[in-house]
Amino acid sequence: MKQNKKLILSSIVAALALFLMIIAGIMPIGTYAIPVLASLLYIVIVKEIGYGWAVMAYAVTSIMSLILCADKETAINFILFFGYYPILKMQLEKIHILALKIIIKLTIFNAAMIAVFYIATFILMIPASAYTVFGLYIPWIILAVGNVVFIIYDYALTGLTKQYDRYWSKIIKKIIK
């Protein structure tokens, strides 16, 4: 594929991901759901034009979402985990030892979510009451539930990648010829 087509495809994906990130501020569940949806777009770039282009599109989307998103916690979630994870996941899938692969994935997820929590609390000044339910301070419970949701997300991402390979890749290749 020619360089200009690679640039166009990666720019379109970055723009769509940024659009999703910007509208996250108007949806109550947008802080977590929108970065997940935006991250799925990077499968196209990795599969069609490679990791380098996907990383560049992720970087552009990350910088612009930090500047343009009203909900900075959404931007931080995207930057510290959801934006790069589909790109990284395709590399992690090359690890043949299942237990090692799972440990690495969970370590990356937990490190990112703990970083998001501390950035949200101490830099974005989100009050502790946001992490309190019925008077109970629950960040560790949220993280434990998040691990279960992450495993589901990872499994779904595998299925979506396979679906992309089977069906959507042919359509995208026809469009960008």
Note down, in words, how this protein is organized.
With 177 residues, the protein is mostly helical. The protein is 79% helix and 2% strand. It contains eight helices and two strands. A two-stranded antiparallel ribbon has the order 1-2. The chain is globular and about 55 Å long. The model has no long low-confidence stretch (mean pLDDT 92).
Helix content: over 70%
**SSE order in H/E notation?**
HHHHHHHEEH
Largest sheet: 2 strands, antiparallel
Care to count the β-strands?
Answer: 2
* Weakly predicted, low-confidence segments: none
Placed side by side, the strands forming the largest sheet appear as: 1-2
Fraction in beta strands: under 5%
Question: How many angstroms separate the termini?
Answer: 8 Å
Secondary-structure topology with pairs:
Elements: H1 3-23, H2 30-40, H3 42-49, H4 51-68, H5 72-82, H6 85-92, H7 98-123, E1 132-133, E2 136-137, H8 139-175
Antiparallel strand pairs: 1-2
How would you sum up this structure in a few lines?
The protein has helices at residues 3-23, 30-40, 42-49, 51-68, 72-82, 85-92, 98-123, 139-175, and strands spanning 132-133, 136-137. With 177 residues, it is an all-alpha fold.
Summary tags:
79% helix; globular; mainly alpha; single chain; 8 helices; two-stranded antiparallel ribbon
